[in-house]
Design brief:
47% helix; mainly alpha
Length: 137
């Protein structure tokens, strides 16, 4: 960690991860896969790096992070571990009401958006396009 509290950036590692993200996006039609698919495809290292350094990856578009493909277990439907589309839509709506900037996690929790605040902290790179100087996560 640096003195500012943000993770230390190693230029060679950053370049390697950015190159990998570019290749993955190109292979995936111009967008990075959602976190669930990245992990399934064996890209958990890239996912963790993106989580630690969201600003470096904000120029990449991430495909809509909806629940994974249904899997059946004893006749039951799938269970969702990825960001739900309705939370992303709510984030866009709240940001639009706040001059394009999504409110910080504390505000979201105080106003009943606890799950959205959790997603915001867990997947910051998905929401980076809604973030601004007023928002501190």
């Amino acid at each position: 960690m640096s003195k500012t509290g943000s993770p230390r950036v190693r230029p060679k590692v950053m370049a390697k991860q950015l190159k990998l993200a570019g290749q993955l996006a190109k292979k995936n039609g111009g967008k990075l896969p959602n976190p669930w698919k990245m992990i399934q495809q064996g890209q958990s290292g890239l996912y963790r790096y993106m989580h630690r350094h969201p600003e470096a990856f904000k120029h990449f578009e991430v495909e809509n992070a909806v629940e994974p493909e249904p899997t059946k277990r004893n006749g039951e439907g799938s269970f969702n571990i990825a960001i739900r589309e309705e939370h992303l839509e709510k984030a866009r709506e709240l940001a639009h009401q706040n001059d394009g900037v999504l409110q910080d996690a504390g505000w979201l929790i105080r106003h009943g958006y606890t799950r959205l605040a959790s997603y915001l902290k867990t997947y910051p790179y998905v929401f980076v396009h809604l973030d601004g100087k007023k928002s501190a996560v």
